[in-house]
From TrEMBL:
Alphabetical UniProt keywords: Hydrolase
Catalytic activity, EC: 3.5.1.42
Molecular function per GO: nicotinamide-nucleotide amidase activity
Domain of life assignment: Bacteria
Organism: Labrys wisconsinensis
Protein's name in the database: Nicotinamide-nucleotide amidase
Organism taxonomic ancestry: Bacteria, Pseudomonadati, Pseudomonadota, Alphaproteobacteria, Hyphomicrobiales
Length: 169
């Protein structure tokens, strides 16, 4: 599922993070660790990747990342606020200065009219508090396609924030 193009993008992300002195953490739900897998497929990634959290269940989001259960209850696990809380939690629960979070509905089931299959929320955060959020509606294109496109989107977000980060000292 991790192709050459994705690994090349991961290599670019790692280079940008290394140039800025950033460690990275991932917080993944619907991708189940695929972003961390793409990053760690690159030799030397241990210089940049601190850790990955696979928080597939709501309980895991709360226990491992500190996402408030009430936030999940009010907005649903697949929401901007939960994605942002996951990204912030990954920073708080790691040594990373940059994180990315993914929560979505890969399918084939689990969707609704309000939150259809293919809906994915992404958030990336820097330890200084800056963050980005993107919502994607990939459509009911198949579980593998949603997950693969989500990995690419997550890597793009990491790259964007890494490039925006000022080098300290």
């Amino acid at each position: 599922m991790i192709d050459h193009t994705t690994i090349e993008l991961a290599r670019i992300v790692l280079g940008a993070c290394q140039a800025k002195g950033l460690l990275v953490a991932t917080a993944e739900s619907c991708t189940g660790g695929l972003v961390a897998a793409a990053l760690t497929a690159v030799a030397g990634s241990s210089d940049v990747v601190d850790r990955g959290f696979v928080t597939y269940s709501n309980a895991a989001k709360a226990e491992m990342l500190g996402v408030p259960p009430a936030l999940i209850g009010e907005h649903g696990a697949v929401s901007e606020l939960v994605a942002r809380a996951m990204a912030e939690g990954a920073i708080r629960h790691s040594k990373a200065g940059l994180s990315v979070a993914i929560t979505g509905i890969a399918g084939p089931g689990g969707g609704s009219a309000e939150k259809p299959v293919g809906l994915v929320h992404f958030a990336a955060s820097l330890a200084d508090g800056r963050s980005l959020h993107i919502e994607r509606r990939f459509g009911d294109v198949g579980r593998d396609v949603v997950r693969t496109r989500s990995v690419t989107q997550a890597l793009d977000l990491l790259l964007h924030l890494a490039k925006d980060h000022a080098v300290v000292g």
